[in-house]
Amino acid sequence: MWTSWVFWMIAAVGLAILEVFLPSFIFLGFAIGAALVGLILLFGGTAVSLSVPMTFLVFAVVSLISWILLRQLLGVHKGQVKVWDKDIND
Question: pTM here?
Answer without folding.
Answer: 0.77
